[in-house]
Amino acid sequence: MGFLNSIQKEWEEIGDLIRRFKLRVSFHPNQFTLFTSEREEVTANAVKDMEYHFRMLKAMNALDTGLINIHIGGAYGDKNKSLNRFHQNLKKLPTEIKKQMTLENDDKTYDIRETLITCEKENIPMVLDYHHYMANNEECDLPLYLQRIFKTWNNFNIVPKVHISSPKSDQAYRSHADFVSIDFVLPFLKMAKELNQDFDIMIEAKQKNLAMHRLVDEIAAIRGVKRISGSSVKW
After folding, report:
1. What's the pLDDT at 1?
2. Residue 104 confidence (pLDDT)
3. Please, what is the Cα angle at 117 between 114 and 120, to 5 degrees?
4. Is CATH 3.20.20.150 the classification given to domain 105-209?
5. Measured distance CA(40)–CA(46) in Å, rounded
6. Could you tell me the pTM of the whole model?
7. What fold is seen in the domain 1-103?
8. Where in the chain is the domain with CATH 3.20.20.150?
9. Between the CA of residue 147 and those of 121, 169, 197, what are the distances in Å?
10. Is residue 200 within 8 Å of residue 160, measured between CB atoms?
11. What's 68-98 look like in SS3?
12. Span 63-90, pLDDT tens digits
């Protein structure tokens, strides 16, 4: 594994930064890393890609909190058959790598209910993507599932993680905007507040850290919210 051995010192330095600043790191392999395909080579390549990312986490000594997040995959015209293939194909993934993975709901295919049931069956934490939920909710009522979504993290001693973003426009609803609209995400934040559940938020916005600081500023301005640091609040 030349990509590891040739720069081992650099991997260790990154790992030192992760521990020093208590960073939460994760990978999101591309859309071709899926376990729903009928083609054996697609599954074999998915296993290889997951192993590739696992080895990077290991090189950074970040396996205690580092995660590899993917989507369930394609439906191929029959969701039930594809979900059954997912469960069968996932058996080819080594257990130590599966322990690092999470599943995220889609903006087009698998909604929060389908993703949650899959996570519960496989004992895999679910990453809720609120923007994806809004784009693809199939009339699923998020309050009915949110506590169960957070519960999928119980056996992993890791604070649940949620993805937050907002649409670029009504015409490009699934695309991420430069910043995160407080009006778009506030209904979710109010909903989550009722559960008294601690969770981390990963902001997916084109302006990255600038978007994060703006959103934290806006949330901190809400009555009853206490600012803990530059990137965290308590409500």
Report:
1. 55
2. 98
3. 150
4. yes
5. 10
6. 0.95
7. TIM Barrel (3.20.20)
8. 1-103, 105-209
9. 16, 30, 9
10. yes
11. EEECCCCCCCCHHHHHHHHHHHHCCCCHHHH
12. 999 999 999 999 999 999 999 999 999 9
